[in-house]
Amino acid sequence: MIITSLLDTDLYKFSMMQVVLHHFPAAHVEYRYKCRTPGINLVAYIEEIRQEIHALCQLRFTEPELQYLRGLRFIKSDFVDFLGLFHLPEKSIVVQPSAVPGEIDITVKGPWLHTILFEIPVLAIVNEVYFRNTSREPNWKEGRERLRTKMQLVTGDPDLADFRVAEYGTRRRFSRTWHEEVVNTLKAEMGPHFAGTSNVLLARKHGVTPLGTMGHEYLQACQALGPRLRDSQVYALEVWAKEYRGDLGIALSDVYGMDAFLRDFDMYFCKLFDGARHDSGDPFVWGERLLAHYQANRTDPRTKTLVFSDSLTIPRAIEIAKRFAGRCRVSFGIGTNLTNDLGHEPLQIVMKMVRCNGQPVAKVSDAPEKTMCDDPAYLAYLRQVFQLPPA
């Protein structure tokens, strides 16, 4: 089977899940899958996908896995106790053919606490099922050579002594075995330049640091869970700080766009959080604006970390690193370009939260194609509330 452990997911799913357990245990949500790559026929493999999801829903955390999670400094014992009883509820997920020929629909509905772990393994399943059926003889030699070339761009440049990159590619990986080979290779050959991986299973297995904080769904859900919509971003950051008390201090900046983020990210948050993560829009413009914002709020940017994770390649990351060298701390999360660069076009697939407690929720990105909402009226209202330009 493709997924053999519930740890085979990104760390930020666990960090968000702990917040859900402690602050929003009754929240009910809906997620929907979307393939942004046109002309992809997945209906031919729908039964295979269903079988893999059925197997996923049979998995439980093992005692050694629970002990590993218990050893992470920010994971609390009652959360691990809950995970000891956890399994993904198969009744909450439906996979069916779409109205669009060849495409499929995947919908997840249920308690947030019990469905939050579906997203990453389901996307990994769709990817691997697709590629093992359409690319039966991948060019492993070419893939290894590409990976080696990328690493040499970093290790061969003396100006990049402080360059740090993490692997973020679970959801769009070519396959589980290739993903593990990539992490093993990065660990063996990049030395201190390799910061770690978002994948908890591989972090545990290979003794590297698991990395991640919050995702878009957390701030989206707070649109329905907070006291009022306009304060939902502030509310999300305050609840996060209450849960982690200064740990996991990288704020996500692009749920409502950079303008709205900077309006809410005041001096209190500038000093409280360790930094912010870029995930849409021009990274250079974003970085310059954030550094200026820190200075305007009497915060030394050199003490803060800017995390870049939007469709990165190693050359692009190097370009960003050199732009901001000495002005702040920078780190990079690279996903698809590391775990699915074998000469085939990767699938652009996502699974996003679209409702929480029966209310529409949305992400309004600096990259318009990343905006996802099933209620145009709510989306227009959200734009108005956060002073965003019309679509």
Automatic annotation (TrEMBL):
Residues 7-127 form the Nicotinate phosphoribosyltransferase N-terminal domain. The keyword ATP-binding does not apply. Keywords: Glycosyltransferase, Ligase, Phosphoprotein, Pyridine nucleotide biosynthesis, Transferase. The keyword Ligase applies. The modification Phosphohistidine is found at residue 216. Belongs to the NAPRTase family. This is Nicotinate phosphoribosyltransferase. The gene is pncB.
